[in-house]
Amino acid sequence: MLTETKVSGQVESLYGIMAEFDDPESLLSAANQARLEGYREMDAYAPMPVEGLAEAIGFRSNWVERLVFVGGLCGAVGGFMLCWWITVVAFPHNVAGRPLNSWPAYVPITFELMVLIACITAVVGMLMLNGLPQPYHPVFNVERFARASRDKFFLCIEASDPKFDPTATRDFLERLNPQEVTDVAL
Hints:
Elements: E1 3-7, E2 10-21, H1 24-37, E3 42-45, H2 53-56, H3 64-90, H4 107-129, E4 153-158, H5 166-175, E5 180-185
Antiparallel strand pairs: 1-2, 2-4, 2-5, 3-4
């Protein structure tokens, strides 16, 4: 749901409203208060990890660890099956009556492929689940947002939130004592 506001006779689509803070404690406090106020669709931007911020904005568990487990399992099974197929089916070689399926010899390849596929899955899964690469996002339209990667902290309440009302949300954010409150246009 997009909110439209009239600005000097023009209709402008609104992505959300963003507040800028000077320190991580203020951002964390603002995120907690926004959650208590009933806002659910929000995002926070900080130049460094802020402990407890993910929970404050309502971040739920992600799928990366599950994807890595499945990738590692597939790599291990694939490595074992590759070794088995080579030594039993494709190129069977009987050496002194030993069994063709000598699984202890497969352990290094099985382990290495498990680690390799799990790592590749972790990188690709993380990028996909984070929506990266993302060359454009509406928050990039806010001029002061360039400092989010250096020394400023931002909380953006999105217009898709069921409780979002441009005036009420702006008033709420201004009560949190931010440095500045800005509309985020699409």
